[in-house]
Design goal:
The chain has one domain: ABC transporter involved in vitamin B12 uptake, BtuC (Orthogonal Bundle). Helices cover 68% and strands 1% of the residues. The protein is built from 14 helices and two strands; from the N terminus they run αααααααββααααααα.
Length: 364
Amino acid sequence: MSTDEHAATPVQAGPQDPRSGRRFGRLDLGSITPLIFFVLLIAVFGVAAPEFFLSGENLTSILNNGAVTALLACGLTAVLIVGEFDLSIAAAASFGGAVAAVLVAHEHVSLLPTFLVVVAAGVVAGLVNGILVTKFEIPALIVTIGVSSLLDGLTLWVTGNTVIFTGFTDAFMTFGNWRIGDLQAPVFYLVAAAAFLGVMLRYTPTGRHMYATGGNRAASRLAGIRVQRQVVLAFVISGVLGSVAGLVYTARQGSLTPQFGTAFLLPVFAACFLGSVTLTRRKFHILGTVLGVYLIETGTNGLLILGAPAFTQQLFAGAVLILATVGARYRTVSFHSQRRPLAETGKPGMRRSRERPQRGDSDE
């Protein structure tokens, strides 16, 4: 390589590339469009039904009802960050709830051992997904569909394909229904999980390695990052949060319907992709995911208050998923088309087109 190729002048100081994870950088209109839409939703429903939608009871209901969905979405976000998919997270929720219900209601196991078994089930599900994807190099789409089917079958087996609604202990019911004011337990579990993951992904080497893995695996390997380990870890996080969310949901409801998790899959994916274009340019992150969940929850809640049929939740979530994905794709293409001419000019202060990529570009 000639010395001329190394002689490109340094990039001028300024806001960091938004694709890196060290800070969000400048906000532009595109990155706050979902927030504007969120505010507009609240304004429209508030004007249309102020006595119902803007009541404290309804607003806390939105927070409470979206908490389990947000727990699942946080787990899925970890997998999306490393560049994979997990279609088994909803089945993991169903299986975690089923295991908890059977242990508590039928086997009379106390809460702590039940919780540990559910966590272990999530770890196993995540390890199976991660190992099949990394060691056997099977596409995550195929692997997680297969694992989802296995978990659904196990759920039907352990429950006998019956609804469980009796035999739950007071401790188990309290785990899902204690509250502070009008906010129920799942909201506080969500805050704890989101805070932990948010800090881990943004400020620790593990989080930066996960973002780097999702950004460029070849470069990450050359940088000494154990890519396979990051992928497996992401699937384990998803499996654990999925199964724990199922336990929380079952404890909150006081009953178990087999395969209840299926209804969560579409809203969870929609929230993650919506969050990826909120505050950032196509970057999955926990804050965006949580905001995406509550935007969808707010929309469906408002539609139901206005008398729309119950199936509008699926319609709204599906529309959000499509629009968020299209928006993410459009913003990515637009972003690169704006940067390419600058990279190729060779002017002072600009990167040359053949300049070696910096590690920070794919880190968090």
